Amino acid sequence: MAGQRKAVKAQTTGDHRGFGKVILFGEHVVVYGATAVVAGVSEYTNCQLRLTKGVPGFKVVDNRPAVPGYKVEKAAEQRKAHELVMNHLSIDLSVDGLEITLAGPLVPSSGIGASASDVVALSRALNEMYALKLNEEEINHSAFVGEGGYHGTPSGVDNTAATFGGLLTYRRAGGVPKFASLPVPTPLYIVVVSTGITASTTKVVGDVRKMKEDKPEWFAGVMSSYDNIVTAASKAINAGDLKGLGALLDTNHLLCRDLTISCPELEDIVTHSKRLGALGAKMSGTGRGGIAVALAASKEDQEKIAAGLTKDCKSARFVWKYSVAPQATKSKAKL
């Protein structure tokens, strides 16, 4: 984008959103070429901008309902991410700066794609404030650049889910990320549950890699089993078969357990979720802590599962009710 861009208005008036995300299928095996299924949930972060005349740079007013400690822990990474977006879009803050206000119903926590929802919402707001005329693919790429502030080398899956929402498949082929949307014929009601435990992604990924190296034939069997799961899951989603989808979540969780990426707290949450009527439940993300996700048959069942976990499951530190809206948008997701 040639030249430095200056604001064309004093503040934004639009509703600029970035969605949250959860991994439904494919933790860790995606590293080795398997296809993951990721849900961009309907809950979101939104962003409003206000010009600070004569005050250069930017400041952030973060009103998101984050888990305790999240905002402080992520503040430096967030600033870097915002700087990357500003530089990528050639935003001129040398004379007149910006006040960035973040809010919305998405609760930032480990595993929910909060950083991507932040930079997608910011990119959308800058698009209005500076009349950039970005299309959706360009918003997605701007957020991908910003994600580098949080993740160093992002996969591209979080920002793509945060931009487009709905269900996405993700696979790395020859080092290049490939995305496709999965039409969702009916709403998906999910309960996302945090253990409050943050595991080292580097260590967990390293442990799985060592298992692959030590037991290659066994790991090949895991990959084959997972390929069958994700193929069946795509069919269940297309057919609106929630019961079948739930059973496949259960099966994928068993594979995660075999990979030693579950933990007692996640097992407790999964067991309680099933007892409370979840169609299926599994850990999501890095594992050995982090979050689990449970699929409900309806909004009413979602309420029941969430209430029961909050009341009776000691391992459930935080419980959220999220949804995946029906949509059929196709995205090429060029990064």
Automatic annotation (TrEMBL):
Residues 235-313 form the GHMP kinase C-terminal domain. GO terms for molecular function: ATP binding; mevalonate kinase activity. Its main location: cytoplasm. Keywords: ATP-binding, Cytoplasm, Kinase, Lipid biosynthesis, Lipid metabolism, Magnesium, Nucleotide-binding, Steroid biosynthesis, Steroid metabolism, Sterol biosynthesis, Sterol metabolism, Transferase. Residues 82-166 form the GHMP kinase N-terminal domain. The keyword Kinase applies. PANTHER family: MEVALONATE KINASE. Belongs to the GHMP kinase family. Mevalonate kinase subfamily. This is Mevalonate kinase. It comes from Bodo saltans.
